[in-house]
């Protein structure tokens, strides 16, 4: 029987707290972020469930410093980890948002204590941790138009060229992202299927893969038409992973709830005005 102390946190949004982006000057501000915002304890495993920062160099410095507190770090991506928020970032990644994710994966692949999750399962002393970022399912043009209207994703996720913007009637503007959101959804369905094939004890995602109970949503989200962008209705597939715990983010909440014997946990830092001061949350997972 193994007992694992597991820490989890999401939606770090580091660059809202840490202005420095030069890796050579990040050591002190990232150290301050860790001690003042994350407040880590010693643990066996630490899970970072997406929306980490808009700048990969900040993330890499964070990962190096967090190794002081834990044996293994698991990372999955959120929608913000695809954002290219400045001209320098758009140039760095040649207007290819998914290249940011490739860079994170390559960085983690070079360190046996760092584990990037995108449809894979990692075994740590018998504990199987699987993960993927997950993505909204928008199968109609109407839903994609709604995504263009309400989500910053359509402004800041790029697929190789500048966005097309169509002007129509009385100066109104209709946005069209050049990035194929529904094609990316298919990559995440495939990622979940790979986890189902391997099975896992803990499933890590960014966007919650099950409908979130109203009492664990922001009040303003209850019965909101935009809730399709905060969770996906994939619980039947999640059950096939045989996981006992799902760690998710994206909703900027701190919550725990259960569905058919699976425990759902989220613990977001959020933006500075949302931060509740809790830092990393922990739980014990006993592996028989």
The CATH homologous superfamily name equals Metallo-dependent phosphatases
Mean pLDDT score:
90
What's the CATH class label? Alpha Beta
CATH fold category name: Purple Acid Phosphatase, chain A, domain 2
Radius of gyration: 19 Å
Number of strands: 13
Query: N- to C-terminal separation?
Result: 5 Å
Helix-and-strand structural type: alpha/beta
> What is the CATH architecture term?
4-Layer Sandwich
Summarize the model shown:
This protein has helices at 27-38, 56-66, 87-92, 98-109, 141-150, 153-156, 181-198, 235-240, and strands spanning 2-9, 43-49, 70-76, 114-116, 120-124, 127-131, 164-168, 172-176, 202-204, 245-248, 254-259, 262-267, 281-287. Helix content is 27%, strand content 25%.
How would you explain this protein's 3D organization?
By secondary structure, the chain is an alpha/beta fold. It has a single domain (2-287), classed as Purple Acid Phosphatase, chain A, domain 2 (4-Layer Sandwich). It has helices spanning 27-38, 56-66, 87-92, 98-109, 141-150, 153-156, 181-198, 235-240; strands at 2-9, 43-49, 70-76, 114-116, 120-124, 127-131, 164-168, 172-176, 202-204, 245-248, 254-259, 262-267, 281-287. The chain has a six-stranded mixed β-sheet with strand order 5-6-9-10-12-11. Helix 2 (56-66) links the parallel strand 2 and strand 3. Helix 1 (27-38) packs across helix 2. The longest helix is centred in the middle third of the chain and has 18 residues, at 181-198. It is globular and about 55 Å long. The model has no long low-confidence stretch (mean pLDDT 90).
